[in-house]
Amino acid sequence: MLRRPKPTDSEADLLREQEHFLTSGAPSAASVVRRPDKRRGEAGEGEGRSGENEGSQRDVVTIEDLPDQLPSLTPAPPKKSRFKASRVTFEDEDAEERLDRHDTHVSAVLSRIVERDTSSTPISLPAFTGMAFPKVLHRSETSNQVPLSSAGGKKSIFARQIAPQKLKECKTTLHSSSEAAPTPETSMDTDQCDAAEPAAVSGPRLVSGQGLRGPDNSGETTRIHMENQAKLQAMSQSEILEEQKKLLSQLDPRLVDFVRSRKAQSVPSFPSPSKHPKDKSATEDPPVQDVSRESGSCSAAVLCQKPQEVEMEGEEEELSAPPPAVTEEDLPVKPQKEWVHMNKLEPEKLEWLRDLPEPRRKGTKKAMQARFDFAGTLIPPTEDLPTHLGLHHHGEEPERAGYSLQELFLLSRSQVIQQRTLSLSTLANILSKARAGEYVSVLKGSVTSTLLDAGLLFLLRFALDDSVEGVMSAAVHALKALLVCAEDEECLDCTFSWFRGLASFPLLPSAQEEEDEEDEGLDESMKETAKEKEERKSDHEVARQDAVKGLLKMKLLPRLRYILEVVRPSPRVVQDVLEILTRLARHSSSSATQVLDSPRLMETVMSEFLPTSWSPSSQSIYGLPLSSAMKLLRVLATSGRHACARLLNSLGASERLSHLLSAEPNELLLEPTESLRITTEAYRLWAIAAGYGQACKLYMDLYPALVTALQSVHRLPPASDPLLPLQLQRFLALLSLLTQVTHTAGCHQELQAGMVSSGGEECPPPPPVSWGHVTGLQTSLMGHLKGFIKNLDDPLQKDGSLTLIPVYLVYLEAYYHQLSRQNCFKPVETLQELELLTSDVLLPLMSHSVVQSLIKNLKSSSVVCNAQAIPLGPEITNNLPGLACTGWRNRPGLVAPSSPFPLLTGLGLLLETITGIHKDLSSKFTGLLLSEPVTGYLRSCSQATPSLSHTKAWLLRHEHHLLYLLLLLAHRLVPLDSEVAKHASLYHQVALVVLPWLLPGSEYLAHELLSTIVFSKDLISEGHSGGPEAVELGELKLHEETQKDTSPSLQTVGALLREACVQLPSIRGCFLTHLAHLESSVIVSRDALLGHNPWIKSHLLPELTGPILPSDWPFLPLVSLYEQAGVSDGGGLAVEELPQGALQAVTHCLQWLLLLEVWREEALKVVLPVAKFARLSCVFLCSSDLFLERPVQRLTWGLFRLLTRSTKLDSLDLNVPPPGLASFQDLYSALVSQYEAVSFGDRLFGCWVLLPLQRRYSTTMRLAVFGEHVGMLRSLGVTLEQLSIPIERFTSPPEDSLPLLRLYFRSLVTGTLKCSWCPVLYVAALSHVNSFIFSQDAAAQEVETARHSMLRKIYYLTDEVLRSHLLLFRLPQHHLQLGFDMYEQLPPIRAKRLERVLGLQESSVDKGD
Fold first, then answer.
1. Helix-then-strand count for the chain, H and E
2. What letter would DSSP give residue 761?
3. Residue 562: in which H helix or E strand, if any?
4. Neighbour-count burial of 576, counting CB atoms closer than 10 A to its CB (0-12 exposed, 13-18 middle, 19+ buried)
5. Is residue 457 within 8 Å of 409, Cβ to Cβ?
6. Which backbone phi and psi does 236 adopt, to 5 degrees?
7. CB-based burial of residue 733 (10 Å sphere; 0-12 exposed, 13-18 middle, 19+ buried)?
8. What pLDDT band is residue 1281 in, cutting at 50, 70 and 90?
9. Which of 25, 490, 1061, 1122 satisfies CB 3.0 to 4.6 Å to 1178 for a cystine?
10. Which of 769, 631, 705, 653 is nearest to 1093 (CA)?
11. Lowest-confidence region among 287-291, 693-697, 1296-1300
12. Helix, strand, or coil here: 1382?
């Protein structure tokens, strides 16, 4: 065996190996191929050459599997043939023949090359001149140059200098060789020379004669050209135009474009009339032949372009003529001879000097491009604005004022600083108006989405890096306009003092699940984590899904820090930067952490904009405390207790709070408005910290200042004072702080006891403030509340009082709630105190006329009841969610000044607490529940279906709190008051509707609803007021009316309902068990809602992914059992043993579903009937014998009867895929397979399988039964009486699927389908086959042949019974024994058809004989 050469081998070793290889005779890995020289003919010609020719040939070494060309390093787009689409190919054509016909070898092409005859070509020597070459160009001689328009496009100065000499030579050559035939080269030159003289006769421009053989080829082309000219001169103008139209309709458009391009290349522009006066007459009055020739060459272009112009601007062609060409007299400044390059007018370049035409509305209905002024206002297309505004420019539509988005993008990358600044400022104004919704009604699509898709984020991020401060400031302002909505922030600030108003949802985009194909089929351990996938994405991909994440990924925070720390911009830019940082912190806890962790960013904010000391004489904003900086700290503190602790301790926020709140606002050496704002934000930050149990030592240190601030509540400015809203916000923030401190102090005792019992392990340390520190505030605050209730009678103080009263109610609720948990709680004294509170404060407040009129706005202010009536809101994009609070002060809403929600929520909280302590007080508040506004509001809520989004979630959360509190009050009053008990079913209905609405963060509310209200016997009044008996009577009445023998299970629905009412506690336990996975979330939510502040981890609510519970939660035990035991690892159906307690869980679930279907049908209206059917199918799919259990059988029979009522059957659409499934056919296939395996002919399972076989549903399921699963027909013994569905739904309309009809016929004829085995499908198959064979409708030949074949086979059947059933079938009749009616004999028309079919057969047999 030959060895491979080694690096250590010498030359002798290589020669020795070569000799060994040659003697062995082994085949070589490379072969020598002698390629023919293309310049010397074919390969055979070189073989007979001499040895020296052979020696000159090159040896080419080829290696197998090695391409001739190196692969391209950069992927190129695949090349497409221009002629491939025009070729006609046939499927049966042989590829080899087509290749031989089209792809000829290169030798065939090269063999036909013939040298042209140049014997008659004149050879002219260049003319000798005494001038230098090239001639020196003087500017004084530029007038002798050929004008640019006639020189054939853009040429250099030298080329234009040589052009006159070339023209002279062309004319000389033309005269000297007029008798000789010109060559192709001279023809081309002549053509160009003649083009300069429009009156001369030019030669052909397309035909050159190069393809003609013989010496006189050019003469032939000239003769052809002269004939064409003669024909054109003999034709009239109309005939020429008609021929042109005919040619244009017949020629390929690409060929027409080619002709136009040749014309444009060969005809330069005419000289200016001012420089050639002698040609003026010829230009103005051309001869007829010139007109005809010109029309023949270029009218095609005119005729092609004109319809398009008419279509786009239909009215403009009639209204205005095109503007005349610009002359020297039209110019406002006359050009002088000394000016460089101004010796000739160029109209196309001087158009901009002309006065602008008036803007006109186009006749077309197509949308026009939006244009904006510098303030971001949309300019109507017909508005004529003066030019001094600077809104006109040399764009596509110079007559229209304003700038389009595309033009603004272009200007933002300009090299001129002013243009960059102006474009970014304009974009900022446009974004502000777009986010406010000003363009929604006048523009198509979303401006914000369009800008983001165009790369606005990257544009602004690049502009932030600009070295010019003006451009950078404009970019900051535009970024603020994109991210921050001022009205959203105002709404969040207004709701801060509401119950749990300090908590908020993160402004994260809706989660979009992306299927990563790379991870399919991999182990969980090998799959990429979410963090790794996020890091692998590009900036563009991240920004497309989440704009804030994209900005953070593009290093926005270090740049903003640089702007604040180094650039030190103007006050407006500083405010914009702080607001941008606030919006970034609202995005999520991770974004807030990034803001905190950014190097030197927060240190700069604290030192420059929240200093501990400042001077009022400072001219700059730097060194002064800013409210926006304090708000940034507050939003950062909301993200988590650890972030709040860092702010208070590491960054010195606690020290800032002491400096700002220890003095009155007017003593802070700041502007009055700024001092009120910054103290308000300081109180809010302190309230956030107190909500974690932090900064409580500060409470003891600043207690005198807090008392002083509380006493100043009586010194509110008058209603006309512009500082009143700021003063009110300051008091609201102060009361929120006191509420949180009260909650924290109430937990001191529990934490102290827990720390002692656990030795300080796994227990938060008790806060410094205890219950004794806060008890002294309650008396003074109670006095304030009484004073505000009295002030409701004063019209000037009414609005301020209504603003403050809800926060006092929330504080009192916190006080009494925590008081009941203390060791110092004295029940007798507290009960007396609560009675006084009720009689002196709460009842007068509820009965006051102002409060009563406010409650009337309950329904109009509701988000739930007005989900469909919300007006057009601002532009919200998927990757940049917002709250859509634009115009909230001027329209009814939850946060509007006329909204009763804050007052009713505070009142409901206090009522829940005091009625829990003093039970007898509940009956005194029946008037609130029985009032018409509250009852009407609850009735509207029971029928509402609100949608979920960021724009509504933050409001829905507050409305859910109010609904929950009203339901708790109703639950207390129903057993005590008969009038309230009359509305028990309404309250229960509202509870069932609200439960699947609850959002993340309200898990405790859902738990309480399930534990107390949803399964309450008191609210299900039908269970103890004759409800089951009424159901039984209704079923008996229906039975008497229909006279139909029904299943015994129908009469037991009343008994089943009675049993379900008895089992309500067990049913509640079953559902709570299946929701045990939410326990941790319930605990977190409970701590937040009940004020267990030291245990709260974050005031940022969980991500808004959807409601807590699915809308089909009543089916949850069934679905959970199916997921556990119904599907095996291999994807098939498992029939293993059920988990312990599964039968009881399924029974309780079915009992609850039966109760809801009978008495609370509206509560399940959000679940589609097909979804109900699919969920209930889990009874049959999760086990082999579960459906055979007696309690399950009885309950499922009852539910089946309810689902198949005549009023419900039409709404059961199985063609719609159920939620969670790709299609219903997949579920039905599993059902049929399970029926074949384990049904044992069960009648209930049989009814379940028969339901989808109705005629109106998909044919696929009937094909599956009569095709793949035809064996199940042997055990599908459901009778017509047992099936509660009319048989007509299976037989009408007649079947039109020929494959299914053949399966019907085959199953009947072969005996697979018999009346005794499967009565329902037997009747259906008979009906469809009978209708098919005797149908008189015209049909295709195949269908008609199948009819005849079936009819003949039926006639010759040996089974007389089946033969008579098929021929004499009349109508389905469920009360008859067979299930259908029969003719005594065939009707005449059918008998004639049978005779005709049989006669056709006999005649064909005779012909065959």
1. 66, 4
2. S
3. helix 556-562
4. buried
5. no
6. -80, 170
7. buried
8. confident
9. 1122
10. 769
11. 287-291
12. strand
